[in-house]
Design goal:
The complex is a heterodimer of chains A (84) and B (437). Chain A is mainly alpha-helical and 84 residues long. Chain A contains two helices and no strands. Helix content of chain B is 38%, strand content 15%. Chain B has an eleven-stranded mixed β-sheet, with helices on both faces. Classes of the chains: A mainly alpha (84), B alpha/beta (437). Chains A and B meet through helix 1 and helix 2 of A and helix 8, helix 10, helix 11 and helix 12 of B.
Chain lengths: 84, 437
């Protein structure tokens, strides 16, 4: 296989799913070699607390934001049940 | 050279060369760019310009720049216009950096070769039949050919350092937390970092200084503690990574070893061999984390907000990660795949911490092999192994940099220098010594 982008056919779709599962299973099996546990400590060094109301919001262009959605009202995106 | 003259030079090159290498996806309107350049020049004359005045910058297509098409090089977001600026963009603009366009990349940063873009692969400026590396393929190629002075990329498992090495430029992956990711369209939030690419270490340092630091909108970000650029021991001890079982091309090993010996002896540095236990499992640890976090992150691309559902419009590599992530997060597996990877990640992180007690930096090649031809057939595992030497830094949260140190068959080769978390200042100092001649 190559890594070039192309539109994926329905037949190829299932092959990709099976292959992804195979790769994950192989990887997972190899990780079993490492025994024991270490406590995750990377985030233990600093307390992350925000002061309510003091976090500056980004300036969001609402017109551009709603422009990205295919179906919308004036100020809301329409999401019909079963439509996605 | 004024900013106006410089940007005209860059735009001229882009018009002539971009169709040949496909590094950039979108350029801002020329009139707008030239007007902004004139404003920056006026500020320079008045002595009121910011740190990045005169620098021409492009941004990877997964970092929001207000009003630009931030497509992540995907059909899924091909019509998406960013409604806001990422924090790094706000910081660049505040310091008068001139952003001129958006760089091509691997689709959703899911790639290591620059081939998976839905808008065509980026071609290697040195040999257009070869890959550029990825996923920040367009950013690295744009810097290499002189479309800009600096670029922003993102690095989850090597995506800045890998293309920087192949394109012969400098690329920095900051420590996890050094740079805000607010406004980055994520691949894997526990590993992603935004970082700079440029032709030299000085410019990488300059852009890093502007974008680094705590941002209230990204809870993982923090101020980098001020550190002396020198070693605490008074002399630099360079750890040379044991490359056994990592499948590194002998010619690359030899080039890197020669360079390390030369620079260490010139600067009076000591060297020491370093073994990171379980580093041979880095790829196997990384991908389950990425598959799961990417699957979770892409649930927002359901067609409601951006028009297309990711499962319908993405290419094969993105689909592999989304479908694989969906499979291994099923309730029946009870988080086995993810938890197992998190567990090994901690062992690798601890190994780095242990080794940094006795060395100042760890060096290795950036890549285990030379780039392949665009479209060449290789297996998934072979492709994933391309980042075997860069992934460990992401797993450990360290900072690391790629600096060009020579060529093999005319293709640039980079050395990777890794320092402990938040030791960017020391890292950049060591990188300057390698860049020296």
């Amino acid at each position: 296989m190559d890594f070039l982008w192309h539109k994926v056919s329905e037949k190829e779709w299932e092959g990709i799913r099976v292959e992804a599962e195979r790769v994950m299973n192989n990887f997972s099996k190899k990780l079993e070699r490492v025994k024991g546990n270490l406590v995750e400590s990377f985030f233990g060094e600093e307390v992350f607390e925000r002061e309510e109301g003091k976090v500056p919001c980004a300036e969001i262009d609402r017109e551009v934001m709603f422009g990205n959605a295919p179906k919308k009202n004036d100020d809301s995106i329409i999401a019909e049940r079963g439509g996605w | 050279m004024t900013t106006l003259e410089r940007v005209k030079e860059c735009l001229g090159k882009i018009k002539k060369e971009n169709c040949k290498i496909n590094a950039l996806l979108e350029i801002r309107p020329e009139g707008e760019i030239l007007k902004e350049a004139e404003e920056i020049d006026k500020k320079i004359k008045r002595g009121r310009a910011g740190k990045l005045a005169g620098k021409i910058i492009v941004v990877k297509a997964n970092i929001n720049v207000k009003g630009m098409n931030i497509s992540c090089a995907s059909k899924v977001l091909e019509d998406y216009k960013a409604p806001y600026d990422a924090s790094v963009i706000e910081r660049i603009e505040k310091e008068d950096g001139l952003i001129i366009g958006i760089a091509n990349m691997d689709e959703f940063a899911a790639g290591f070769s620059g081939e998976t873009s839905a808008f065509g692969p980026v071609k290697n400026p040195v040999d257009k039949t070869l890959i550029t590396g990825g996923s920040s393929s367009g950013s690295a190629a744009a810097v290499a050919v002189g479309f800009c002075d600096m670029a922003l990329g993102s690095d989850t498992g090597g995506s800045i350092r890998n293309p920087a090495s192949i394109c012969g430029v400098v690329g920095l992956k900051p420590s996890y937390g050094s740079v805000s990711r607010y406004g980055l369209i994520d691949l894997s939030m526990s590993l992603d970092q935004i970082g700079p690419l440029a032709k030299n270490v000085k410019d990488v340092n300059l852009l890093f200084d502007v974008i680094k630091g705590k941002d209230e909108r990204d809870a993982t970000s923090r101020e980098c503690p001020a550190q002396p650029p020198q070693s605490k021991r008074g002399e630099i001890i360079v750890g040379i990574l044991d490359l056994d079982c990592l499948g590194v091309d002998e010619r690359i090993k030899e080039l890197i070893n020669r360079k390390v010996e030369e620079i260490s002896s010139k600067n009076g540095w000591k060297t020491k061999e370093v073994n990171i236990e379980n580093i041979d499992l880095a790829v196997e640890t990384y991908y389950p984390l990425v598959y799961v976090e990417f699957f979770s992150a892409t649930r927002r691309f359901d067609g409601r907000r951006y028009g297309k559902k990711i499962e319908d419009a993405a290419g094969p590599e993105v689909l592999r990660r989304v479908l694989g992530g969906g499979e291994i997060t099923k309730a029946e597996h009870e988080g086995r795949y993810y938890n197992s990877a998190i567990r090994v990640k901690e062992f690798i992180r601890a190994e780095f911490s242990k080794n940094f007690r006795s060395v100042d930096c760890i060096v290795s090649p950036v890549l285990p092999r030379l780039p392949w031809k665009i479209g060449e057939k290789i297996s998934v595992e072979e492709g994933y192994a391309m980042d075997v030497l860069t992934i460990p830094s992401n797993l450990a949260g360290n900072c690391s940099i790629s600096v060009p140190v020579g060529k093999i068959d005319g293709i640039p080769v980079g050395i990777q220098i890794i320092c402990d978390k938040f030791e960017e200042e020391k890292l950049l100092g060591i990188a300057r010594a390698f860049e020296g001649d």
